[in-house]
Amino acid sequence: MIRSRIIPCLLVHNKGLIKTVEFKESKYVGDPINAVKIFNEKEVDELIVLDIDATKEKRSPDFDMIRNLAVECRMPFCYGGGVKTVEEVKKIIGLGAEKVAISSSAIYNFDIIEKMSNAVGAQSIVVVLDVMKKGLFGNYELYVENGIVKTGIKVKDFVSKLNKITIGEIVINSIERDGTMQGYDFNLIDMVRELTDFPITVLGGAGSLEDIEQLIDRYKIIGAAAGSLFVFKGKYRAVLINYPTKEEKKILLHTN
Fold first, then answer.
1. Residue % of the chain over a pLDDT of 70
2. Which residues have C-beta within 8 Å of that of residue 101, sequence separation ≥ 6?
3. In CATH, what is the architecture of 5-253?
4. Residue 246, SS3 per DSSP
5. Region for 205 from its dihedrals, namely left if φ exceeds 0, alpha if ψ lies in -120 to 50, beta otherwise
6. For 42, which of 32, 54, 240, 243 could close a Cys bridge (C-beta 3.0–4.6 Å)?
7. Cβ atoms of 216 and 224 closer than 8 Å
8. Predicted confidence (pLDDT) per residue in 69-125, tens digit
9. Boundaries of every domain in the chain
C-alpha cells in the first residue's frame, strides 16, 4: 500500500555529510554512518543519500560507502550519485539499497532509464529532477551536475516524456528552496502532480513540521523529504540529527 513518507535526505561530500543552501554554501554536519545509526533509532520511514561529488568528478559511485550504509540501515535506503550504467544499478541493489536515484544520466541518456527499470524492477528506479525557475515567463527548468549546468529543458516537457516509460518515483528538488527552510514550492509541485501519476517525493524548503503537514494535507500520498530540517536545530542551526516522534508522525500523517 502506498502511503506518505517522511524522508531525511543526506548529502555526501568528501565522504562526510554536508548541508547546502541553494546547492552552495556547504556546512559540514557529520559522519554518514553515525547519522544512519541515529536515524535507525528514530525509526525513519526511508532515507535518501546523495553523493554530490560523483557526477561532478566523473567517477563511479563509491560502492564501499554504499555497502557500509546498506549494512547499517534498518530502513529503506535510496542511493544517488554518479550512476550511469545498468551494471552499476544492479550492483547497488545487490549491495542492499532498495532504490537507485539517477539525475544527470536521465537527462543525458534518456534511454538508459527504462533499461535500468527492466534490470532491477521499475519500483527501484528514482528520477531526481533538480529544478530552478528561470526566464521571462518563470518557466521551471532542469539543471544537472549539482545545479551548475543549465539544460534548457522545461520540467513539464521532461515529466511528460517520463510518462511514456516506467519508473518507480520522481523526486522534485527545488534548487532555489534548498537549505532556505522557507517552505516547499507548491506551484512547482502542483504542476508536476497535474502532469503525472508517478509517486512524487518533494525536496527543498522544509523548515518545520508544519511545512510537512501542509504538504501532506495538500497532496495526501506524497514523499516529504528534507535535509536541513533533520540535521539542524534552532535559529542558530546547531547540528543535531532529529526526526519527528511517533506521536508527531501520527499527527503529520493523519494515522491512528
1. 98
2. 48, 50, 78, 79, 80, 81, 83, 126, 127, 128, 171
3. Alpha-Beta Barrel (3.20)
4. helix
5. left
6. 243
7. yes
8. 999 999 999 999 999 999 999 999 999 999 999 999 999 999 999 999 999 999 999
9. 5-253
